[in-house]
């Protein structure tokens, strides 16, 4: 569904530049994946090691001099839910605030050893928690970690299966009948991660997007365990204003039967005593009508359309309040499909577009790790 | 005169003038200060402007180098720089103008994509410098580069011209 050459061309150009910088700077990440060894010369990159760079090379051959790329084209994520995903099973993923991280490929992660990993991780967490507390041996002992796969949360057949990790609290007394409560949930997924999958070797599993919900301390402990066991690296995924405006446009473009929430934007004004926040809410049908008047090519979203959409909103605001929204920073976007915050927090509301939202986030995660 | 022309005034003796066009006053002030700290063989003058056209009643010297400062964190600065570009004579772009994209260090705060600036610079055939003005080291480096360019534009460098 995604166009091969046109789609994400701007993205590929950036990857090229950041890849160049990586070879020149001293490599400071603690764990390094073999595909990025520091001794890799600049020439190797120009010989188009990855398909992304191959596409870039072909574009450069077309242009005689360096011409900056045409506006990015991206297909709006109107994909239907995969047949094998049960909406009930993924219902617990919706309406929850997830913190985003990007994750480098996992070394020697196997889907058959999930029980083993659960055991090891439980032991690790228990040990970590007991390290901090001197005497108290409370209910933290009675935790259970469960690894499972989330079937169907992926874009293409070649994407690896999503993995779900949950910390459940075991019921205290055996006579208690209550269900294990999930203290912390985290899941790894890869949706349309073709660019990354092609570049890594067989031993690696690519699950670049990690979403976590729960206590920050648990996230840190689990992150440490994964980093030690699979030689990967977590880093928080921040979403900048540019990407937030793309999300706003793409999610407004989604066809919805029923709008559950207004389309809301939050802008942060940088001023010296303390920063002000401007919240701008629009009726979702009005936002859709505005988008439809801006949108031209069906099935594709271009940079100009996104810019025009946001400019319309800002000029409307300026007409009423005489404040240039373009001088402020977009911090939060909230629509009926999903809501995203610049600190890397996301909440998905509509299950129909789950895959679409995850696809864009996977792209951001891949861009960050490259 | 509404349009800024490169050779409409006589050059001063041993002086070089830099005109910074951009919106963020505090930022530009900081930059101007850091520039003046630098050692420069010739006398260096830095003028700041929010946007062009400049008011015509002010007596100002010949501008040797025109730097358009675009704050990557704000689309508004890009829009105002684009509007200012209309008031510049085309012969400035033969080496006497350049674009400075500030705030490139904090990727998470960027509202303007790097490619937009690069496309703009390519259209106007002028160099673009990306920098992060918040970090002292980068500021000093950027000041050095600009002083160098300014000296070339003012003709103070022997055998090198803009």
TrEMBL record, chain B:
The keyword Zinc does not apply. Keywords: Centromere, Chromosome, Nucleus. It is found in: Chromosome, Centromere; Nucleus. Pfam families: CENP-M. One of its GO terms (cellular component) is nucleus. The keyword Transferase does not apply. This is Centromere protein M.
